[in-house]
Amino acid sequence: MDTAQFISKSKNNSVEKASFTWQTPSNIALVKYWGKSNPQIPKNASISFTLNNCHTITTIDFEKKETSEKVDFDLFFEGKQKDAFKPKIAEFFTRIQEYCPYIFDYKMTINSENSFPHSSGIASSASGLSAIAMCLMSLESALNPDLSAEKINKKASFLARLGSGSASRSIEGPMVVWGKHPEIEGSSDLFGVKFPYKVHSIFENYQDAILLVDKGEKQVSSTVGHNLMHNHPYAESRFAQANDNLSKISEILQNGDIKAFIGLVESEALTLHAMMMTSNPYFILMKPNTLEIINSIWEYRNENDSNICFTLDAGANVHVLYPENEKKAVNQFIEKELSKYCQKNQYIYDSVGFGASKK
Ligand code: PMV
């Protein structure tokens, strides 16, 4: 695989001090990535909606230091020094140092905050790592002003992927594919690409209400989770199914067959959870209220001829997906019927967004 193209060719090193701030979104997978090989190569291609309201804002202050022996950074989360997050970021810097050798030259002070409540069960690694990647790419383009916007996004996604696979899908929007797939032009295992075909208008400004069922710590970290797919009895058929689903959803997104979209997206969510239930050791990540919500969604859909559906992450929260033309009715249904299944009645209204933005 051509990773040499991502090694920085800094032209000058005259930048003594710099500061960059980026806002990058979370994303929700429609066809899920679950299972990888080293270094962060997905076992199947995946596609996600980029979100709009759930995001991270990160500033990195870079200050040139005397020696370049080791990577040196401080980390602040919501204004407070957060040493607990440091090992993950340190590991990320180790993985990317070959591609961004300039990180040795600067003392980095990272300040980060999320738009969504802390420990809401919403994964912050995708938005968190993509924001750091964008700040690094701003420094890299100050060192090498020839870099094109396209190259910056591509490398940012490549770097973010090395921190957290799904973060590769948090640079652009409204839909991003990560993982090489014969039917998606330009797709790669190394970085995410914008879904390259014209999407039917029914999927424009698609809504995602995130119902916070369980705000606790993740029961299974994604590292442990992905590892469960090694020697999993259904792994190979799952990877083949996911790639097949990506072919199908590519057609669906173009032709607007929303009934087919619902069937595929819900099946993907339940299959992800089925993989966890059938792994060794096994896990049930849904909570009773996750099932209450799913059943209520199905009932509402039948009774109202609605196009509402759900998807799940590797946890108990439910993402309720629906087209913009149903926003009023579905939001009422969420407030009246579904919010009671959420911890402290908490849910977040979001919709499809367009990716990273410089602040
Ligand atoms: O990016 P990771 O390693 O945290 O894995 C994320 C996996 C899922 O969120 C469950 C699915 C996906 O494709 O985002």
TrEMBL record:
Pfam families: MDD_C, MVD-like_N. It comes from the Bacteria. GO terms for molecular function: ATP binding; carboxy-lyase activity. Residues 210-346 form the Mvd1 C-terminal domain. InterPro entries: GHMP_kinase_C_sf (IPR036554), Mev_decarb (IPR005935), MVD-like_N (IPR053859), Mvd1_C (IPR041431), Ribosomal_Su5_D2-typ_SF (IPR020568), Ribsml_uS5_D2-typ_fold_subgr (IPR014721). Residues 25-181 form the Diphosphomevalonate decarboxylase-like N-terminal domain. GO terms for biological process: isoprenoid biosynthetic process. This is Diphosphomevalonate decarboxylase. It comes from Polaribacter atrinae.
